[in-house]
Input
Amino acid sequence: MELDIVELSRLQFAMTAMYHFLFVPLTLGLSVLVAIMETVYVMTGRPIWRQMTKFWGALFGINFVLGVATGITMEFQFGMNWSYYSHYVGDIFGAPLAIEGLMAFFLEATFVGLFFFGWDKLSRRAHLTVTWLVAIGSNFSALWILIANGWMQNPVGAAFNPDTMRMEMTSFFDVLFNEVAQAKFVHTVSAGYVTAAVFVLGVSAWYLLNDRHTRLARRSITVAASFGLAATLSVVVLGDESGYSASHTQKMKLAAIEGMWETHSAPAPFTAIGFPDKEARETHYAIEIPLVMGLIGTRSLTEEIPGINDLVDEARRRIESGIVAYDALMTIRENRDATPAAVRETFEANSNNLGFAFLLLRYMDDPREATAEDIARAADDTIPGVAPLFWAFRIMVGLGFAFIAVMAYFFWRSSFCQQSYPRWALRLAVLIIPAPWIAAELGWFVAEFGRQPWTVDGVLPTALSVSHLSVQDLMLTLAGFVTFYTVLFIIEMGLMLKYIRKGPFQDVEETEAWEARHEHRLRTHDGQGPFADPEYAS
Output
Protein backbone atom coordinates (compact mmCIF):
# COMPACT_ATOMS: atom_id res chain seq x y z
CA MET A 1 0.00 0.00 0.00
CA GLU A 2 2.83 2.41 0.82
CA LEU A 3 4.42 1.83 -2.57
CA ASP A 4 1.07 2.29 -4.31
CA ILE A 5 0.79 5.71 -2.70
CA VAL A 6 4.30 6.62 -3.81
CA GLU A 7 3.75 5.52 -7.40
CA LEU A 8 0.39 7.27 -7.63
CA SER A 9 1.85 10.47 -6.17
CA ARG A 10 4.68 10.32 -8.71
CA LEU A 11 2.23 9.68 -11.54
CA GLN A 12 0.01 12.58 -10.48
CA PHE A 13 2.89 15.04 -10.33
CA ALA A 14 4.31 13.72 -13.60
CA MET A 15 0.99 14.20 -15.38
CA THR A 16 0.48 17.75 -14.12
CA ALA A 17 4.10 18.65 -14.92
CA MET A 18 3.89 17.25 -18.45
CA TYR A 19 0.63 19.07 -19.14
CA HIS A 20 2.13 22.29 -17.78
CA PHE A 21 5.20 21.93 -19.96
CA LEU A 22 3.02 21.81 -23.06
CA PHE A 23 2.60 25.57 -22.57
CA VAL A 24 5.92 26.67 -21.06
CA PRO A 25 8.36 26.27 -23.97
CA LEU A 26 6.14 28.14 -26.43
CA THR A 27 5.72 30.96 -23.90
CA LEU A 28 9.49 31.26 -23.45
CA GLY A 29 10.23 31.31 -27.16
CA LEU A 30 7.31 33.36 -28.48
CA SER A 31 7.93 36.13 -25.92
CA VAL A 32 11.39 36.69 -27.40
CA LEU A 33 10.30 36.31 -31.03
CA VAL A 34 7.49 38.83 -30.54
CA ALA A 35 9.95 41.26 -28.94
CA ILE A 36 12.30 40.87 -31.92
CA MET A 37 9.46 41.57 -34.36
CA GLU A 38 8.36 44.67 -32.48
CA THR A 39 11.96 45.88 -32.36
CA VAL A 40 12.06 45.75 -36.17
CA TYR A 41 8.73 47.63 -36.27
CA VAL A 42 10.04 50.42 -34.05
CA MET A 43 13.27 50.66 -36.07
CA THR A 44 11.58 50.70 -39.50
CA GLY A 45 8.07 51.98 -38.85
CA ARG A 46 6.66 49.43 -41.32
CA PRO A 47 3.10 48.34 -40.42
CA ILE A 48 3.69 44.73 -41.48
CA TRP A 49 5.97 44.25 -38.47
CA ARG A 50 3.35 45.70 -36.12
CA GLN A 51 0.84 43.33 -37.67
CA MET A 52 3.23 40.41 -37.10
CA THR A 53 3.82 41.48 -33.49
CA LYS A 54 0.11 41.63 -32.75
CA PHE A 55 -0.68 38.33 -34.45
CA TRP A 56 2.04 36.24 -32.82
CA GLY A 57 1.48 38.17 -29.57
CA ALA A 58 -2.15 37.03 -29.51
CA LEU A 59 -1.07 33.40 -29.81
CA PHE A 60 1.50 34.04 -27.05
CA GLY A 61 -1.27 35.43 -24.81
CA ILE A 62 -3.51 32.38 -25.21
CA ASN A 63 -0.63 30.09 -24.38
CA PHE A 64 0.54 32.25 -21.45
CA VAL A 65 -2.83 32.23 -19.69
CA LEU A 66 -3.16 28.46 -19.79
CA GLY A 67 0.48 28.02 -18.75
CA VAL A 68 -0.21 30.08 -15.63
CA ALA A 69 -3.39 28.14 -14.86
CA THR A 70 -1.60 24.79 -15.00
CA GLY A 71 1.55 25.99 -13.22
CA ILE A 72 -0.06 27.34 -10.07
CA THR A 73 -1.52 23.91 -9.25
CA MET A 74 1.93 22.33 -9.24
CA GLU A 75 3.17 24.53 -6.39
CA PHE A 76 0.19 23.52 -4.25
CA GLN A 77 1.00 19.87 -4.88
CA PHE A 78 4.19 20.17 -2.85
CA GLY A 79 2.03 20.71 0.20
CA MET A 80 -0.75 18.32 -0.74
CA ASN A 81 1.09 15.28 -2.10
CA TRP A 82 4.67 15.82 -0.93
CA SER A 83 4.28 17.22 2.55
CA TYR A 84 7.28 15.45 4.10
CA TYR A 85 9.45 16.64 1.23
CA SER A 86 8.22 20.20 1.85
CA HIS A 87 8.97 19.87 5.57
CA TYR A 88 12.38 18.29 5.07
CA VAL A 89 13.84 20.65 2.43
CA GLY A 90 11.37 23.53 2.38
CA ASP A 91 13.91 26.04 3.67
CA ILE A 92 16.00 25.58 0.53
CA PHE A 93 13.47 24.61 -2.12
CA GLY A 94 10.95 27.27 -1.10
CA ALA A 95 13.34 30.22 -1.44
CA PRO A 96 13.73 30.24 -5.26
CA LEU A 97 10.02 29.49 -5.72
CA ALA A 98 9.11 32.50 -3.56
CA ILE A 99 11.54 34.71 -5.47
CA GLU A 100 10.08 33.47 -8.75
CA GLY A 101 6.63 34.57 -7.66
CA LEU A 102 7.71 37.97 -6.34
CA MET A 103 10.34 38.92 -8.92
CA ALA A 104 9.45 37.18 -12.14
CA PHE A 105 5.78 36.15 -12.24
CA PHE A 106 4.38 39.51 -11.09
CA LEU A 107 6.73 41.32 -13.48
CA GLU A 108 5.62 39.13 -16.35
CA ALA A 109 1.90 39.25 -15.54
CA THR A 110 1.86 43.04 -15.07
CA PHE A 111 3.55 43.80 -18.36
CA VAL A 112 1.50 41.22 -20.29
CA GLY A 113 -1.52 43.44 -19.60
CA LEU A 114 0.31 46.53 -20.80
CA PHE A 115 1.41 44.67 -23.92
CA PHE A 116 -2.15 43.91 -24.99
CA PHE A 117 -3.90 47.09 -23.86
CA GLY A 118 -1.14 49.65 -24.28
CA TRP A 119 -0.81 49.85 -28.06
CA ASP A 120 -2.74 53.14 -28.33
CA LYS A 121 -1.74 54.48 -24.91
CA LEU A 122 2.04 54.12 -24.99
CA SER A 123 4.66 55.44 -27.36
CA ARG A 124 6.32 52.97 -29.70
CA ARG A 125 9.48 52.83 -27.61
CA ALA A 126 7.56 52.54 -24.33
CA HIS A 127 5.51 49.66 -25.71
CA LEU A 128 8.67 47.98 -27.02
CA THR A 129 10.16 48.24 -23.52
CA VAL A 130 7.04 46.56 -22.13
CA THR A 131 7.35 43.74 -24.66
CA TRP A 132 10.96 43.07 -23.77
CA LEU A 133 10.07 43.11 -20.06
CA VAL A 134 7.46 40.42 -20.77
CA ALA A 135 10.17 38.32 -22.41
CA ILE A 136 12.62 38.95 -19.56
CA GLY A 137 9.96 38.07 -16.99
CA SER A 138 9.17 34.80 -18.76
CA ASN A 139 12.82 33.80 -18.75
CA PHE A 140 13.28 34.90 -15.12
CA SER A 141 10.40 32.61 -14.13
CA ALA A 142 12.20 29.72 -15.77
CA LEU A 143 15.47 30.66 -14.06
CA TRP A 144 14.16 30.46 -10.50
CA ILE A 145 12.12 27.32 -11.07
CA LEU A 146 15.13 25.60 -12.61
CA ILE A 147 17.34 26.74 -9.74
CA ALA A 148 14.92 24.92 -7.43
CA ASN A 149 14.88 21.85 -9.65
CA GLY A 150 18.64 21.96 -10.14
CA TRP A 151 19.11 21.84 -6.38
CA MET A 152 17.07 18.63 -6.29
CA GLN A 153 19.47 17.18 -8.87
CA ASN A 154 22.62 18.45 -7.11
CA PRO A 155 21.89 19.51 -3.50
CA VAL A 156 24.70 21.99 -2.80
CA GLY A 157 24.67 24.86 -0.31
CA ALA A 158 22.71 22.91 2.30
CA ALA A 159 23.32 20.59 5.24
CA PHE A 160 21.27 18.33 7.50
CA ASN A 161 20.69 19.64 11.03
CA PRO A 162 20.39 16.69 13.46
CA ASP A 163 18.68 18.88 16.05
CA THR A 164 15.83 20.02 13.80
CA MET A 165 15.79 16.87 11.60
CA ARG A 166 15.65 19.05 8.48
CA MET A 167 17.88 20.24 5.66
CA GLU A 168 18.94 23.87 6.10
CA MET A 169 20.53 26.29 3.66
CA THR A 170 24.18 27.07 4.31
CA SER A 171 24.94 29.16 1.20
CA PHE A 172 22.36 30.83 -1.01
CA PHE A 173 25.20 31.69 -3.40
CA ASP A 174 25.93 27.98 -3.94
CA VAL A 175 22.24 27.23 -4.52
CA LEU A 176 21.96 30.11 -6.99
CA PHE A 177 25.09 29.25 -8.98
CA ASN A 178 24.66 25.48 -8.80
CA GLU A 179 26.27 24.15 -11.99
CA VAL A 180 23.35 21.80 -12.67
CA ALA A 181 20.80 24.61 -12.30
CA GLN A 182 22.68 26.94 -14.62
CA ALA A 183 23.14 24.22 -17.25
CA LYS A 184 19.47 23.23 -17.01
CA PHE A 185 18.33 26.84 -17.33
CA VAL A 186 20.17 27.68 -20.53
CA HIS A 187 19.37 24.28 -22.04
CA THR A 188 15.65 24.49 -21.19
CA VAL A 189 15.30 28.07 -22.37
CA SER A 190 17.05 27.27 -25.64
CA ALA A 191 14.67 24.34 -26.13
CA GLY A 192 11.79 26.79 -25.65
CA TYR A 193 13.26 29.02 -28.34
CA VAL A 194 13.44 26.06 -30.70
CA THR A 195 9.80 25.22 -29.94
CA ALA A 196 8.62 28.72 -30.79
CA ALA A 197 10.76 28.86 -33.92
CA VAL A 198 9.32 25.56 -35.21
CA PHE A 199 5.79 26.75 -34.34
CA VAL A 200 6.16 30.07 -36.19
CA LEU A 201 7.83 28.32 -39.11
CA GLY A 202 5.07 25.71 -39.38
CA VAL A 203 2.15 28.15 -39.13
CA SER A 204 3.77 30.48 -41.66
CA ALA A 205 4.37 27.55 -44.01
CA TRP A 206 0.67 26.67 -43.76
CA TYR A 207 -0.20 30.21 -44.83
CA LEU A 208 2.09 29.96 -47.84
CA LEU A 209 0.65 26.58 -48.82
CA ASN A 210 -2.81 28.17 -48.79
CA ASP A 211 -1.62 31.42 -50.41
CA ARG A 212 -2.76 33.51 -47.43
CA HIS A 213 -1.01 36.38 -45.63
CA THR A 214 2.10 35.74 -47.68
CA ARG A 215 3.86 38.98 -46.70
CA LEU A 216 3.55 38.13 -43.01
CA ALA A 217 4.40 34.47 -43.59
CA ARG A 218 7.61 35.08 -45.53
CA ARG A 219 8.94 37.55 -43.00
CA SER A 220 7.95 35.26 -40.12
CA ILE A 221 9.77 32.34 -41.72
CA THR A 222 12.89 34.47 -42.10
CA VAL A 223 12.83 35.49 -38.43
CA ALA A 224 11.96 31.98 -37.22
CA ALA A 225 14.65 30.29 -39.33
CA SER A 226 17.39 32.71 -38.21
CA PHE A 227 16.36 32.60 -34.56
CA GLY A 228 15.71 28.85 -34.68
CA LEU A 229 19.06 27.98 -36.25
CA ALA A 230 20.91 29.80 -33.47
CA ALA A 231 18.66 28.16 -30.85
CA THR A 232 19.04 24.61 -32.20
CA LEU A 233 22.81 24.90 -32.31
CA SER A 234 22.87 26.26 -28.75
CA VAL A 235 20.67 23.36 -27.54
CA VAL A 236 23.29 20.89 -28.75
CA VAL A 237 26.16 22.82 -27.15
CA LEU A 238 24.29 23.32 -23.88
CA GLY A 239 23.16 19.69 -23.86
CA ASP A 240 26.82 18.74 -23.99
CA GLU A 241 27.37 20.94 -20.93
CA SER A 242 24.58 19.08 -19.09
CA GLY A 243 26.25 15.76 -19.94
CA TYR A 244 29.56 16.98 -18.59
CA SER A 245 27.88 18.17 -15.39
CA ALA A 246 26.15 14.80 -14.92
CA SER A 247 29.51 12.98 -15.15
CA HIS A 248 30.43 14.23 -11.68
CA THR A 249 27.06 15.13 -10.09
CA GLN A 250 24.73 12.31 -11.24
CA LYS A 251 26.93 9.43 -12.33
CA MET A 252 24.20 6.81 -12.12
CA LYS A 253 21.89 8.80 -14.39
CA LEU A 254 24.64 9.18 -16.99
CA ALA A 255 25.50 5.48 -16.87
CA ALA A 256 21.83 4.53 -17.23
CA ILE A 257 21.37 6.86 -20.20
CA GLU A 258 24.29 5.10 -21.88
CA GLY A 259 23.28 1.59 -20.84
CA MET A 260 26.84 1.33 -19.50
CA TRP A 261 26.94 -1.60 -17.06
CA GLU A 262 30.69 -1.96 -16.75
CA THR A 263 33.33 0.74 -16.38
CA HIS A 264 35.18 1.18 -19.67
CA SER A 265 38.80 2.10 -19.94
CA ALA A 266 39.15 5.79 -20.82
CA PRO A 267 37.90 7.25 -23.06
CA ALA A 268 34.52 5.48 -23.02
CA PRO A 269 32.61 4.83 -26.27
CA PHE A 270 29.13 6.18 -27.02
CA THR A 271 26.45 3.54 -27.56
CA ALA A 272 24.57 4.73 -30.64
CA ILE A 273 21.99 1.95 -30.41
CA GLY A 274 21.41 -1.13 -28.28
CA PHE A 275 18.89 -2.97 -26.12
CA PRO A 276 19.55 -2.58 -22.37
CA ASP A 277 18.59 -5.58 -20.24
CA LYS A 278 18.38 -4.71 -16.54
CA GLU A 279 17.91 -8.33 -15.47
CA ALA A 280 20.99 -9.55 -17.34
CA ARG A 281 22.96 -6.35 -16.57
CA GLU A 282 23.89 -6.11 -20.23
CA THR A 283 23.12 -4.00 -23.31
CA HIS A 284 22.48 -6.40 -26.19
CA TYR A 285 23.51 -5.73 -29.80
CA ALA A 286 25.25 -2.48 -28.83
CA ILE A 287 26.73 -0.41 -31.65
CA GLU A 288 29.41 1.79 -30.13
CA ILE A 289 31.22 4.88 -31.41
CA PRO A 290 34.73 4.93 -29.90
CA LEU A 291 35.93 7.83 -27.72
CA VAL A 292 32.77 9.94 -27.98
CA MET A 293 31.24 9.35 -24.54
CA GLY A 294 34.56 9.94 -22.81
CA LEU A 295 34.96 13.26 -24.61
CA ILE A 296 31.37 14.34 -23.86
CA GLY A 297 31.28 13.14 -20.26
CA THR A 298 34.77 14.03 -19.07
CA ARG A 299 36.25 16.23 -21.82
CA SER A 300 39.41 14.22 -21.57
CA LEU A 301 40.98 11.06 -22.95
CA THR A 302 42.19 9.75 -19.59
CA GLU A 303 39.27 9.99 -17.14
CA GLU A 304 36.98 6.99 -16.69
CA ILE A 305 33.18 7.04 -16.56
CA PRO A 306 32.00 4.50 -13.97
CA GLY A 307 29.52 1.82 -15.04
CA ILE A 308 26.29 0.89 -13.29
CA ASN A 309 27.70 -2.17 -11.49
CA ASP A 310 30.56 -0.18 -9.95
CA LEU A 311 28.12 2.55 -8.93
CA VAL A 312 25.90 -0.04 -7.21
CA ASP A 313 28.93 -1.23 -5.25
CA GLU A 314 29.62 2.37 -4.26
CA ALA A 315 25.97 2.77 -3.18
CA ARG A 316 26.34 -0.32 -0.98
CA ARG A 317 29.32 1.25 0.78
CA ARG A 318 27.44 4.52 1.20
CA ILE A 319 24.45 2.70 2.70
CA GLU A 320 26.75 1.07 5.26
CA SER A 321 28.21 4.48 6.10
CA GLY A 322 24.69 5.94 6.26
CA ILE A 323 23.67 3.32 8.81
CA VAL A 324 26.50 4.55 11.05
CA ALA A 325 25.20 8.12 10.62
CA TYR A 326 21.65 6.98 11.35
CA ASP A 327 22.75 5.24 14.55
CA ALA A 328 24.55 8.41 15.69
CA LEU A 329 21.49 10.50 14.77
CA MET A 330 19.23 8.35 16.94
CA THR A 331 21.65 8.78 19.84
CA ILE A 332 21.62 12.56 19.35
CA ARG A 333 17.83 12.61 19.35
CA GLU A 334 17.68 10.58 22.57
CA ASN A 335 20.25 12.77 24.33
CA ARG A 336 19.64 16.24 22.91
CA ASP A 337 21.12 18.08 25.89
CA ALA A 338 23.99 15.74 26.67
CA THR A 339 25.13 14.16 23.43
CA PRO A 340 28.76 12.97 23.67
CA ALA A 341 31.08 14.89 21.36
CA ALA A 342 32.32 11.63 19.86
CA VAL A 343 28.79 10.77 18.70
CA ARG A 344 28.40 14.12 16.93
CA GLU A 345 31.81 13.67 15.33
CA THR A 346 30.76 10.25 14.09
CA PHE A 347 27.57 11.71 12.67
CA GLU A 348 29.39 14.55 10.92
CA ALA A 349 31.90 12.14 9.41
CA ASN A 350 29.12 10.04 7.86
CA SER A 351 26.27 12.54 7.45
CA ASN A 352 26.74 12.88 3.68
CA ASN A 353 25.56 9.27 3.37
CA LEU A 354 22.55 9.51 5.69
CA GLY A 355 20.16 9.63 2.74
CA PHE A 356 21.44 6.24 1.55
CA ALA A 357 20.46 4.71 4.90
CA PHE A 358 16.96 6.11 4.33
CA LEU A 359 16.67 3.83 1.29
CA LEU A 360 16.31 0.96 3.75
CA LEU A 361 13.18 2.52 5.30
CA ARG A 362 11.30 1.23 2.29
CA TYR A 363 11.80 -2.29 3.69
CA MET A 364 12.08 -1.85 7.47
CA ASP A 365 11.44 0.57 10.31
CA ASP A 366 15.02 0.68 11.58
CA PRO A 367 17.95 0.69 9.09
CA ARG A 368 20.26 -0.54 11.87
CA GLU A 369 18.56 -3.92 11.61
CA ALA A 370 19.44 -4.34 7.92
CA THR A 371 21.15 -7.50 6.77
CA ALA A 372 23.65 -7.75 3.93
CA GLU A 373 20.80 -8.85 1.65
CA ASP A 374 18.73 -5.81 2.63
CA ILE A 375 21.66 -3.50 1.89
CA ALA A 376 22.24 -5.15 -1.48
CA ARG A 377 18.56 -4.77 -2.37
CA ALA A 378 18.56 -1.08 -1.41
CA ALA A 379 21.73 -0.54 -3.44
CA ASP A 380 20.06 -2.10 -6.48
CA ASP A 381 17.21 0.39 -6.05
CA THR A 382 19.60 3.18 -7.04
CA ILE A 383 19.47 1.91 -10.65
CA PRO A 384 16.74 3.82 -12.53
CA GLY A 385 14.84 2.33 -15.45
CA VAL A 386 17.69 1.92 -17.93
CA ALA A 387 15.82 1.04 -21.14
CA PRO A 388 13.31 3.96 -20.97
CA LEU A 389 16.13 6.42 -20.27
CA PHE A 390 18.32 4.96 -23.00
CA TRP A 391 15.69 5.32 -25.72
CA ALA A 392 14.16 8.60 -24.52
CA PHE A 393 17.56 10.25 -24.67
CA ARG A 394 18.30 9.00 -28.18
CA ILE A 395 14.94 10.05 -29.59
CA MET A 396 15.41 13.49 -28.04
CA VAL A 397 18.90 13.87 -29.50
CA GLY A 398 17.74 12.63 -32.91
CA LEU A 399 14.97 15.23 -32.97
CA GLY A 400 17.47 17.91 -31.97
CA PHE A 401 19.69 17.22 -34.97
CA ALA A 402 16.62 17.11 -37.23
CA PHE A 403 15.67 20.61 -36.07
CA ILE A 404 19.15 21.85 -36.98
CA ALA A 405 18.75 20.48 -40.52
CA VAL A 406 15.29 22.01 -40.97
CA MET A 407 16.30 25.43 -39.63
CA ALA A 408 19.50 25.49 -41.69
CA TYR A 409 17.54 24.68 -44.85
CA PHE A 410 14.95 27.42 -44.31
CA PHE A 411 17.66 29.90 -43.31
CA TRP A 412 19.44 29.16 -46.60
CA ARG A 413 16.24 29.56 -48.64
CA SER A 414 15.38 32.79 -46.82
CA SER A 415 18.83 34.33 -47.17
CA PHE A 416 20.00 33.20 -50.60
CA CYS A 417 16.92 32.08 -52.57
CA GLN A 418 14.72 35.19 -52.35
CA GLN A 419 12.38 33.61 -49.78
CA SER A 420 11.16 30.94 -52.18
CA TYR A 421 10.29 27.60 -50.60
CA PRO A 422 9.39 24.28 -52.27
CA ARG A 423 5.97 22.96 -51.34
CA TRP A 424 7.48 19.75 -49.96
CA ALA A 425 9.55 21.82 -47.51
CA LEU A 426 6.49 23.83 -46.46
CA ARG A 427 4.54 20.62 -45.84
CA LEU A 428 7.43 19.26 -43.78
CA ALA A 429 7.48 22.45 -41.68
CA VAL A 430 3.77 21.98 -40.91
CA LEU A 431 4.17 18.29 -40.07
CA ILE A 432 7.01 18.81 -37.56
CA ILE A 433 5.13 21.36 -35.43
CA PRO A 434 4.51 18.80 -32.60
CA ALA A 435 8.10 17.49 -32.66
CA PRO A 436 9.74 20.05 -30.30
CA TRP A 437 7.11 19.34 -27.64
CA ILE A 438 7.91 15.64 -27.90
CA ALA A 439 11.62 16.40 -27.52
CA ALA A 440 10.99 18.70 -24.54
CA GLU A 441 8.81 16.16 -22.72
CA LEU A 442 11.41 13.46 -23.33
CA GLY A 443 14.10 15.77 -21.95
CA TRP A 444 12.17 16.24 -18.72
CA PHE A 445 11.52 12.50 -18.56
CA VAL A 446 15.28 11.87 -18.74
CA ALA A 447 15.98 14.50 -16.08
CA GLU A 448 13.34 13.38 -13.57
CA PHE A 449 13.04 9.64 -14.16
CA GLY A 450 16.82 9.39 -14.24
CA ARG A 451 17.01 10.83 -10.72
CA GLN A 452 15.01 8.01 -9.17
CA PRO A 453 14.86 6.66 -6.50
CA TRP A 454 15.59 10.14 -5.13
CA THR A 455 13.44 13.21 -4.72
CA VAL A 456 16.61 15.07 -3.71
CA ASP A 457 19.57 13.21 -5.15
CA GLY A 458 21.47 11.31 -2.45
CA VAL A 459 19.53 13.07 0.33
CA LEU A 460 15.85 12.13 0.40
CA PRO A 461 14.34 9.02 -1.27
CA THR A 462 11.08 9.46 -3.14
CA ALA A 463 9.42 6.78 -1.02
CA LEU A 464 9.80 8.98 2.10
CA SER A 465 8.67 12.25 0.53
CA VAL A 466 4.96 11.66 0.08
CA SER A 467 2.02 12.76 2.19
CA HIS A 468 -0.11 10.31 4.18
CA LEU A 469 -2.95 10.01 1.70
CA SER A 470 -5.16 7.12 0.71
CA VAL A 471 -5.07 5.38 -2.62
CA GLN A 472 -8.66 6.49 -3.19
CA ASP A 473 -7.72 10.16 -2.64
CA LEU A 474 -4.88 9.92 -5.12
CA MET A 475 -6.92 8.08 -7.75
CA LEU A 476 -9.71 10.63 -7.50
CA THR A 477 -7.44 13.68 -7.71
CA LEU A 478 -5.37 12.11 -10.49
CA ALA A 479 -8.51 11.53 -12.56
CA GLY A 480 -9.67 15.05 -11.79
CA PHE A 481 -6.40 16.65 -12.82
CA VAL A 482 -6.15 14.65 -16.04
CA THR A 483 -9.75 15.45 -16.99
CA PHE A 484 -9.46 19.15 -16.17
CA TYR A 485 -6.09 19.59 -17.86
CA THR A 486 -7.28 17.71 -20.94
CA VAL A 487 -10.22 20.12 -21.19
CA LEU A 488 -7.83 23.08 -20.85
CA PHE A 489 -5.58 21.63 -23.53
CA ILE A 490 -8.53 21.15 -25.91
CA ILE A 491 -9.64 24.74 -25.23
CA GLU A 492 -6.15 26.03 -25.93
CA MET A 493 -5.86 24.07 -29.16
CA GLY A 494 -9.28 25.32 -30.25
CA LEU A 495 -8.38 28.95 -29.56
CA MET A 496 -4.98 28.68 -31.23
CA LEU A 497 -6.44 27.06 -34.35
CA LYS A 498 -9.25 29.62 -34.45
CA TYR A 499 -6.83 32.56 -34.42
CA ILE A 500 -4.48 30.89 -36.89
CA ARG A 501 -7.35 30.30 -39.35
CA LYS A 502 -8.59 33.85 -38.82
CA GLY A 503 -5.15 35.26 -39.55
CA PRO A 504 -3.52 38.53 -38.53
CA PHE A 505 -5.33 41.68 -37.55
CA GLN A 506 -4.98 44.40 -40.20
CA ASP A 507 -4.03 47.92 -39.04
CA VAL A 508 -5.84 49.59 -41.94
CA GLU A 509 -5.32 53.24 -41.00
CA GLU A 510 -1.63 52.88 -40.21
CA THR A 511 -1.02 50.81 -43.35
CA GLU A 512 -2.75 53.38 -45.59
CA ALA A 513 -0.82 56.27 -44.01
CA TRP A 514 2.49 54.44 -44.39
CA GLU A 515 1.79 53.52 -48.02
CA ALA A 516 0.76 57.12 -48.83
CA ARG A 517 4.04 58.45 -47.47
CA HIS A 518 6.12 55.91 -49.34
CA GLU A 519 4.18 56.26 -52.60
CA HIS A 520 5.38 59.87 -52.78
CA ARG A 521 8.97 58.78 -52.13
CA LEU A 522 8.75 56.08 -54.80
CA ARG A 523 7.43 58.57 -57.40
CA THR A 524 10.12 61.06 -56.45
CA HIS A 525 12.91 58.52 -56.90
CA ASP A 526 11.30 56.54 -59.78
CA GLY A 527 11.43 53.41 -57.72
CA GLN A 528 15.12 53.85 -57.05
CA GLY A 529 17.22 55.23 -54.21
CA PRO A 530 17.44 54.74 -50.48
CA PHE A 531 13.68 55.03 -49.86
CA ALA A 532 12.59 52.52 -52.49
CA ASP A 533 10.82 49.38 -51.32
CA PRO A 534 10.66 46.64 -53.97
CA GLU A 535 7.48 45.31 -52.43
CA TYR A 536 5.59 48.56 -53.09
CA ALA A 537 7.55 49.52 -56.20
CA SER A 538 6.20 46.43 -57.90
User: Anything to note?
Assistant: Confidence is low (pLDDT under 50) at residues 526-538. The longest helix spans residues 214-249.
